[in-house]
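Cross-posted from the bioinformatics board.
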Amino acid sequence: MAAPSQPMVSEPRKALRVYLHLKDRILSGALAPTARMPSEPDLATQHGVSRVTIRSALERLAEEGLVERRPGSGTYVRSPSRTATLVADFSNVFTHLVEMGRSTEVRLLAFGYMLPTPAVAEGLGLDPGEEVQRSVRVRITDGMPFSYLVTYVPKRIGISYSEADLRSTPLLELLERSGARVASARQTVGASQAGPEIADALGVETGAALLSITRIVKDETGAGVEYLYALYRPDLYELQLDLERTRQGRSMRWAAISPSAAGRPAGARRSEPRNAKNPGIVKRKTTR
Amino acid sequence: MAAPSQPMVSEPRKALRVYLHLKDRILSGALAPTARMPSEPDLATQHGVSRVTIRSALERLAEEGLVERRPGSGTYVRSPSRTATLVADFSNVFTHLVEMGRSTEVRLLAFGYMLPTPAVAEGLGLDPGEEVQRSVRVRITDGMPFSYLVTYVPKRIGISYSEADLRSTPLLELLERSGARVASARQTVGASQAGPEIADALGVETGAALLSITRIVKDETGAGVEYLYALYRPDLYELQLDLERTRQGRSMRWAAISPSAAGRPAGARRSEPRNAKNPGIVKRKTTR
């Protein structure tokens, strides 16, 4: 690698590369817990970047609890920190979301009516020119914003509740109150980089990776009643699905274990402590 | 915002901000399809950055098919492009992965034995000092790498197959051939930023958002047989779960619809074309 130049300002793109590289090495075990990291000048030479850049990468690792900086001694890899995460059972995530609506705080960022984007119009099966109610909410748990929710509801349903209702009541409950008979949903899960506004609302850096869920909810007639685009901070929220192998005739299959689908009591398959107030949400300690 | 300075080099961090901001506006419909974008000098003034930075952000949007640059005329928002994505049915993802093992190409990047990280040892329930086989594979479909898979298997099972076996045969099949009776799995889904090595292997930019799945597979006795950490390109792969509402006594519940869990034929609930060769994978056109 070329000898580093030594600018006095941090190079953010290079700092991101070094940060992600070191993070991978720590999480994969290549840099073992308690190990002393190479010195800043050595890291700078290794990576062909300035010391300022190395310092910026190490600061971000320290903020995330992956390393510990001991003044006068050096930087040490920490035993992976155990951070609290909301874990939603994916196969039954709706029930939990209603419960979450009651236990977490909601901030309403936007509320109004508009013509939908093509994707929303197609997902909800709207007539051309049919308007939707669009709302943007941030959900907060323990003072930490963890999800950014953009929802679109056909205007004919949306007008049955107010902005104030949406601040206080889970959307699914409002939809049902309006007479919609919610019957099915399709969820698609992906990942996305946080843009500046979303990063700001969720308290993460621009460009941070977020878990994304697109959900289209339909009523008994197959008409769309809600289109949700949700972004979650992966350090605070993850999805979980338990699967078991079942015999079906001569072949083995995998089936999601969910209380209603598998016909078992919800408690029977859980080894982790449940949050008594929110039985759908497991607050657990995860090893990062 | 301050008047922009005009450096001749792009400012990557600022270009990322502008790119993500404009992308959000296009995907949310705030910038409508076919609309002409503001000129480069106007965008530079609006965002307080150089024209070089604006050009770099617009180039990335153009590469992703979100805008079209017409020389001498300007930059136009495109109708959201429809890109092919592998969609895996989340509630039955295993069966599909075996099928994918047969239909996609695999590149083996690493293979060896090592002491596990604390998270892997805990996940698999290993004795202290027990080694694991670690492999790193990249899975490719239509010439595009879409997943980066790191697997850990207890050494006592791993030694039953070779590096060459792993290049040609799905891991789940190798585990079963070794006598392991695979019975259950827990999958956790999140998101992560690509480090430089992983970005390189998947053909994305360092820092790009990836979908992550951690899966712990156990045998009939509850012993861990596989720990998987998988990263997926969200533009090429997403997870899907269909849910339906069911009445259980007096309360309504949500249940995952999967062929074996809900006892329906697989075809009955699908409206999208299936890939005939890989019935577990839906190749569909998504509207981004």
